[in-house]
Every structure is written in structure tokens, then in C-alpha cells.
């Protein structure tokens, strides 16, 4: 059987499916793309469906930047700094203790933090003192639960100190 006959038979059988699938492919342009962002903690809403240029987030799978038309993702936030790049070129930095980030197929982004505070509101000395106390608590922990709680406190305070330096 010749290649022509095989491809012709294939085309007759599967051609309509291939044409249908090719029509479903979306174009991924960035020039006119919108990226509505919602960023909130239980006590405050920082952004609510505001079109943002870029968001950088710290996650347990690695820190990454989010631009319009980003591939859909769900990730857990680790303690660190979320940086929001607004359309006018200004940037805002927020410390988050934990939470989640969801990037949807429609380019909308939700950053939900357990705790969040603007980095400029952090007290460097208090962050260092908190780290010192957390390290002491870790060293004196006698149960698995106390060790786990102290380890979490150390990780958060290390990220706090790094954020204010």
C-alpha cells in the first residue's frame, strides 16, 4: 500500500477530528492581554480584580513570575515576598507567611495568603528578635509537636529577616 493511500485513508477517517482540534488551539499573545489579580489575606484585601502587569510569588516548587496568559497553575506559597508589578511601573512588596496561588485559564490570578503585610511595615529588629526566640524554642523543644511548631516559626522568621534586609 502506498503512502498516499495510507494518508488518504487516514485523512478520511480522522481528518474531521484533526480539523476540529486545530480550531480549538488558542493564540497566546501578550500585547493586549489582561491579568486581573485578587490578592487577599483573612484580614485585608490588597488587590481585587485589578489588572496587573506581573506578580512574583514564592512557592514550595520554586519562586516564579506570573504574566498574562500564564499556564494554569495551583501552587502553595511558602514564607517569602510576593512582588506585584502594576501597569504604571510601580512595584509593591508583601511578606506572606503561607497560602496558595491559583492561575486560571482566563488569566485571572488569586493569591490567598494566611498572613500578609507590606514589607515596608516590617520592623527589622523585631524580625531578628523573633528569629532568635524561634531558634531557642527549636533547641529546647522536647516533643515532636513542639519541634514542628518551632521549625515552622524558624522558617517564617528566616524569611522575614531576608525580606527586610
TrEMBL record:
<dbReference type="Pfam" id="PF02823">
    <property type="entry name" value="ATP-synt_DE_N"/>
</dbReference>
<dbReference type="InterPro" id="IPR036771">
    <property type="entry name" value="ATPsynth_dsu/esu_N"/>
</dbReference>
<keyword id="KW-0375">Hydrogen ion transport</keyword>
<protein>
    <submittedName>
        <fullName>ATP synthase subunit delta, mitochondrial-like</fullName>
    </submittedName>
</protein>
<keyword id="KW-0809">Transit peptide</keyword>
<keyword id="KW-0496">Mitochondrion</keyword>
<keyword id="KW-0472">Membrane</keyword>
<feature type="domain" description="F1F0-ATP synthase delta subunit C-terminal">
    <location>
        <begin position="123"/>
        <end position="163"/>
    </location>
</feature>
<keyword id="KW-0139">CF(1)</keyword>
<dbReference type="InterPro" id="IPR001469">
    <property type="entry name" value="ATP_synth_F1_dsu/esu"/>
</dbReference>
<dbReference type="InterPro" id="IPR020546">
    <property type="entry name" value="ATP_synth_F1_dsu/esu_N"/>
</dbReference>
<keyword id="KW-0999">Mitochondrion inner membrane</keyword>
<keyword id="KW-0406">Ion transport</keyword>
<dbReference type="InterPro" id="IPR048937">
    <property type="entry name" value="ATPD_C_metazoa"/>
</dbReference>
<feature type="domain" description="ATP synthase F1 complex delta/epsilon subunit N-terminal">
    <location>
        <begin position="36"/>
        <end position="116"/>
    </location>
</feature>
<dbReference type="Pfam" id="PF21335">
    <property type="entry name" value="ATPD_C_metazoa"/>
</dbReference>
<keyword id="KW-0813">Transport</keyword>
<comment type="similarity">
    <text>Belongs to the ATPase epsilon chain family.</text>
</comment>
<dbReference type="InterPro" id="IPR036794">
    <property type="entry name" value="ATP_F1_dsu/esu_C_sf"/>
</dbReference>
<keyword id="KW-0066">ATP synthesis</keyword>
